Amino acid sequence: MITAERKPLEELIEYVKPYKRILLLGCNECVTVCAAGGRKEVGLLASGLQMALLKSGISIDIRQHTLERQCDPEYVEEIVSMIAGVDAVVSMACGCGVQQLAMRYKDKPIFPAVNTKFMGASERQGVWAERCQGCGNCLLGETGGICPIARCAKQLMNGPCGGSAGGHCEISEDVDCAWQLIWDRLKALGKEESFVEITPAKDWRSGGGSGPRKIIREDLAE
Amino acid sequence: MKSGSNLEKVLEAGHFSVTAECGPPRGADPEHVRKKAAFVKDNVDACNVTDNQTSVVRMSSLAGCLLVKESGVEPLIQMVVRDRNRIALQSDLLGASAMGVRNLLCLSGDHQKFGDDPQAKNVFDIDSMQLINLARRMRDEGVFPSGDKLEGAPKFYIGCAVNPFADPYEIRVPRLKLKIEAGADFVQTQCIYNMDTFKRYMEDTKKEGLHEKVKILAGVTPLKSAGMAKFMNKFVAGIDIPEEVIKRVADEPKEKQAAKGIEICIEQIGELKEMEGIAGVHVMAIEWEEKLNEIIGGAGLLPRPVVE
């Protein structure tokens, strides 16, 4: 999923201060799962903002709503009348949702309430970790199901650098060495011999190197 | 001859080679490099010039190489893949070769978090393995990765680094094998202090016959003090200094610790010289270049051979 973290209240206050009526818009997808911008967080932020603003003598009408998916034009269309009734929108979705709103409602100020972080998985309750960088050409089949692009601090494609110690990356004891994980997996699978060929330089065009990416499915596109 | 470098000639003639390194200054003062080069001159077959080591910004490695060369020392350019993409790396390979730099060491580079610009965006477009391969193809096939023909192929004696003390240990020899396949002519190892681990590594290397395919230069760094030893052991990634080595230095009074460090280093070179499969030594006297003559001379490796 796409992970996100809520921005500090002070930053959000600066965004909304000039307005009388705002819409706080959550998203029911990834940001709900990572507890950053779902229905619950919309409610919490609304009361948090309201209290902080009142302390400074500012009164704003904060309306709340949560869409099924903010990155989908169909759902974004649903809120035409709601948008018309406010001066600005604070989106609690990831950057994709914020931009979807901005593209649809061209004359309405839209502000992000979260910092979109990375594509990750949950490690345990309350902990998410990066797992994928969307390079566009998945090599997990060759690396034992562990990604050296997302999980090696140097994106090394041909084995660990000289900084791997005790399973940790040289940048921090809190970071696993991706190549230690890969090697352990290859061993568990009895596939150490797959480490005998040089992985050639990666074609980063599929990974964003050739500009913004797009998928067009002819069978689905209208 | 692949490159015609002095280092290549010395090694191919079967001599035990000596290399050292110079870290360029944190500024634009060329005198700094010239001073270091004067300490290196006549003591080595080639001198590494580091490339923004530990991600601390310094004078460029290529400029450092040219200053070293002007001082009469054969340069060995270190190139890390942290800061430049394949376009910049290729361009610098061509430039370095054009200016007469004939030795190359291909490295990943320390992560930028260790330097003074941790906010920087790193590159890592290609890895050190791929850089070795790129340099070899340019040299031997005279082509760019695109297949386009070069107007003059760069001539490098191509090196790589290995760290026998990093984890996972079992991947280290297979990884060296890959680097040789990629095109490495020589290897410079991480600083060796743990001779037991290094001997084991060499045994495993010899089992694969790799010592016959690549020239292995064993890395050593003299310890200036017990404090330095403890610091390196604790904080420098990939360094393993056994307790007994630290103790040998620490048992000396402060003013004699440096001399003990040099004595240990000379002893170590003596042991490495006798080890099968070791083709030379790489002396990294970090900010201590003035001691190179004492160390290399003390190890009985002077004068350096002249090979035509």
The greatest interface here is: A-B, 32 and 35 residues
Low-pLDDT windows of residues of chain B: none
What's the CATH architecture name of the largest domain in chain A?
Answer: 3-Layer(aba) Sandwich
Would you tell me the structural class of the helices and strands of chain A? alpha/beta
Ends of chain B: how far apart? 12 Å
Average pLDDT score of chain B? 97
Helix content of chain B: 40-55%
Q: Shape of chain B, please? A: globular
Report low-confidence residues of chain A grouped into runs of 5 or more.
none
Query: What string gives the helices and strands of chain A in order?
Result: EHEHHEHHEHEEEHEEH
Concise overview:
With 222 residues, chain A is an alpha/beta fold. In chain A, 29% of the residues lie in helices and 23% in strands.
SSE topology sketch:
The complex is a heterodimer of chains A (222) and B (308).
Chain A: E1 2-6, H1 9-16, E2 21-27, H2 30-33, H3 39-55, E3 61-67, H4 73-77, H5 80-84, E4 88-91, H6 95-104, E5 110-112, E6 114-124, E7 127-132, H7 148-151, E8 168-169, E9 172-176, H8 178-188
Parallel strand pairs in A: 2-3, 2-4, 4-5
Antiparallel strand pairs in A: 1-6, 6-7, 8-9
Chain B: H1 6-12, E1 17-22, H2 30-40, E2 46-49, H3 61-70, E3 75-80, H4 86-98, E4 103-107, H5 128-141, E5 157-162, H6 172-182, E6 186-191, H7 195-207, E7 215-220, H8 226-235, H9 243-250, H10 254-273, E8 278-283, H11 292-298
